[in-house]
Design brief:
469 residues, alpha+beta, Transferase(Phosphotransferase), domain 1, six-stranded antiparallel beta sheet, 14 strands, 24% helix, 14% strand, globular, EC 2.7.11.1, kinase
Length: 469
């Protein structure tokens, strides 16, 4: 079923590591010199002490690099890098740092994936997505400095629940925040493509953060507001995939890079809500003051197409497995699998092995177990998301707006999701436990420590071989 010359990035489950697969991504030009940068301040992180620590260091030393950080613990590793808990020296401020080995990326044709992740992180400013506090490179490494989430990931948290599944109330809490994150990404023209509990991190206060963007697809999109009365019609679609000049930039391609856009084209990334003052509509034009429904944000990049074979086996959408080309609808399929797993403790199409799983995704109907019992509205939403034909899938046209209006999310105050009480708040981390550990103090000690911890899929037996067809 699967074309063998496709770009293959499918992952296994359980250890959060990716298999060592062949990729057709080409190398990108890069400077061999050490560089560093601190991204611009993000409004939603106002008053964040981590920004103060980063900016203070840059003000003092005029730069920031690996030598400014003390590596405390390796939190995990994947196909393109390792993640460390680090302390910015002299500040008592802690971060998660993703370190990627340049030579390893280049030898496996994965430089473009690292570049894509960095470019996406620079764009993000959302409460349920990562904040990139700094990025820099040395002669050997690319480094991304992000928020440390003390609660681990949802996969680990789910396994600690009674019967290894969440209640419907807890699932609704996590799913509502993921939904807002996906809506925001689609508004930026980003198809995430790798939703799974392992990639959903739990912050100190119990809210979530979606992580890992190296498999994401970028395109341009024009989100707009439309009248609710016409939002269901295909002729009102406002998120056509176009560039600044109005030309269609979509189309089937075997290389994701074809539909990438320049990150400086910021006009593509903001909703066209307010026209010029001369032509500006009043609130009553949208029905706000006359008892009509509120306008809807249409931000779905429906026309983008990719031929890449990427994702996690149990979460892969049928159109990816069949090699038909895929777009933003794959995120709504994975959202359905995500809901199913949180509620049932397993994914719906899991087979004895990867091959069996892929066959089940394409050929087997969706079934619900007798236990645990879930509500009819939860099943209805999952059924609507796990439709094998993407154009018939819920949210295919209207995106997150359609899912928000589903009865499963009845009662959710979308404007105040950040104020909702989390079902689980992690225990505070005692960072003093790392103070007594020996650490090098020389200028190259951090780089030596990173080099000593390198582990790749070719040497680590915990990586599972990927078999596809």
């Amino acid at each position: 079923m699967q074309n063998h010359n496709m770009n293959n990035s499918a992952k296994g489950r359980g250890n959060q590591n990716e298999s060592n697969n062949n990729h057709v991504h080409t190398d990108v030009n890069e400077s061999s010199s050490s560089t560093n940068a601190a991204p611009v301040f993000r409004p939603h992180t106002g008053g964040d002490s981590r920004w103060e620590a980063i900016n203070s260091t840059i003000s003092r030393d005029r730069e920031i690099g690996l030598s400014h950080f003390k590596l405390l613990k390796r939190l995990g590793y994947g196909d393109i890098g390792s993640v460390y808990l680090v302390e910015l020296k002299g500040t008592n401020t802690f971060f998660a740092m993703k370190v990627m080995d340049k030579a390893s990326l280049a030898s496996r044709n994965k430089l473009l994936r690292a570049q894509t992740e960095r470019e996406i992180l620079v764009l993000l400013d959302h409460p349920f997505l990562p904040t990139l506090y700094s990025y820099f490179e040395t002669e050997k490494f690319y480094c991304l400095v992000m928020e440390f989430c003390s609660g681990g990931n949802l996969h680990t948290l789910r396994q600690k629940q009674p019967n290894k599944h969440f209640t419907e109330e807890a699932t609704r809490f996590f799913a509502s925040q993921i939904l807002l994150a996906l809506e925001y990404l689609h508004m930026l023209g980003i198809v995430y493509r790798d939703l799974k509990p392992e990639n959903v991190l739990v912050r100190d206060e119990g809210h979530i953060m979606l992580s890992d963007f190296d498999l994401s697809l970028r395109c341009s999109v024009n989100p707009t507001l439309v009248k609710s009365s016409s939002a269901h019609g295909s002729n009102t679609m406002a998120s056509n995939t176009t560039n600044n000049h109005g030309h269609n930039t979509s189309g089937t391609t075997e290389d994701d890079n074809v539909v990438h856009t320049n990150t400086n084209q910021t006009s593509n990334f903001f909703p066209r809500i307010l026209p010029s003052k001369k032509n500006r509509k009043t609130k009553s034009d949208f029905g706000v003051l006359v008892g009509g429904p509120l306008p809807e944000l249409m931000a779905e990049p429906t026309n983008v197409r990719s031929m890449s074979f990427v994702g996690t086996h149990e979460y892969l959408a049928p159109e990816i497995i069949r090699g038909e080309g895929h777009g933003s609808a794959v995120d709504w399929w994975t959202f359905g699998i995500f809901l199913y797993e949180l509620l049932h403790g397993t994914t719906p199409f899991k087979g004895q092995g990867n091959r069996a799983t892929l066959f089940n995704v394409v050929g087997q109907p969706l079934r619900f177990p007798e236990s645990p019992q879930v509500s009819n509205v939860a099943r209805d939403l999952i059924k609507g998301l796990l439709v094998k034909e993407p154009h018939k899938r819920i949210a295919y046209r209207r995106g997150a707006t359609e899912i928000k209006q589903h009865p499963f999310f009845e009662g959710v105050n979308w404007a105040l999701v950040r104020s909702a009480v989390p079902p689980h708040v992690p225990e505070p981390v005692d960072f003093s436990q790392f103070a007594s550990k020996e650490s090098g103090t020389g200028p190259n000690s951090s780089e030596k420590k990173v080099s000593g911890n390198k582990k790749t899929s070719s040497t680590d037996p915990s990586y599972a071989d990927f078999e596809y067809f």
